[in-house]
Amino acid sequence: MTLEISPVRGARDLESFIRLPETLYENDPTFVPMLRSSERKMLDPKRNPFYEHAEAEHFLARRDGRIVGRVSAIRNRAHEEIHRDKAGFFGYFDAENDAEAARSLLATAEDWNRSRGLERILGPVNPSTNDPCGTLVEGFKWPPFVLMTGNPPYTPGLIEGAGYARAKDLLAYFLPASEASHDKVKKVAAAVKSRGDVKLREIDLSRFDEELALVMEIYNDAWSKNWGFVPMTAAEIRFTADDLKAVVLPELAYFAFLDGKVVGFSFALPDINQSMKRAKGRLFPFGWFWFLKPVLRKIPVFRILALGVRKEHQQLGIGTLFYERYIDMALARGYRGAELSWVLEDNELMNRPLRHMGARPYKKYRIYEKSLLR
What we know:
Blueprint: E1 3-7, H1 10-24, H2 36-43, E2 54-63, E3 66-76, H3 77-83, E4 87-95, H4 99-114, E5 120-123, E6 135-138, H5 155-161, E7 165-176, H6 182-193, E8 198-202, H7 208-222, H8 234-244, E9 253-258, E10 261-270, H9 273-279, H10 293-296, E11 301-309, H11 319-333, E12 337-344, H12 348-356, E13 360-371
Parallel strand pairs: 4-5, 11-12
Antiparallel strand pairs: 1-2, 2-3, 3-4, 5-13, 6-13, 7-12, 7-13, 8-9, 9-10, 10-11
């Protein structure tokens, strides 16, 4: 049986690339299709500002003419400049349980990066660590939350079989509302409040541009010391915000102020993957219904996907105030629980308080690496 790896050329190939997971995983009860319209925007270098400092090429694997896998080869020049690291990336990796096809796809991404003078390859990132990334290696029985990746249990073996090793693990926690250590959180939160004039307020969507400016002010500072982090440009933050604005609920997004100065923010989304599963990857003709605000407010779980405090204030415990607010809000509104993800495996400043308030790591994602030197 003939295996062929070919670059994506033209609209038909691109659509095949986008829709392949729907075919590969259609019988997997945990699979959630991405919105095709969002995927087209993410992959379009004319629309996604990530490509102002990056480039990518996408590839399909065909066996006797039938598509059996996909991968993207990605170069992120911002990563190279910030980390002084000649690392390239692969992403959007999906394949049948076919070791030869997986090795050939990944080898193609490796050759592409090697030809640009890069010396190692990391992934998967779709297309960066500011986006959905990592391969699920533990916790396969649960479907992914919003903007988290999902894959079958055989995928890690395909990647490792191609010579990749663990670079970093990312943890996803789940906290059932009924099991939250409310008294412990309240006690710590009271101590934090006693140290200064700390206040939280909800995001004001009627002042979206001003609120986004506050997010931009904090984000690149708060995350700057994290492994693999690359600051987002103003255009990238705007691109992401515009894509999510329609599904943001004000009661799930907060700013923290210390002595009147904004020092942190936290952002959560209802688990719109439940809506995406019903929409089957399409907004039209009727998929839009599942993303209406009254429908979103009926989703019983949410994901805290960003929680950051300026570096100079990270030892003050301000994050606990966000957790206190989320627990109070969840109990009042009848939420069943929340995923808190992702967190670097060695980020004890985040892991310790999550465990302290009763959250448990229930999924593990992996970023892999491989040398490109021969």
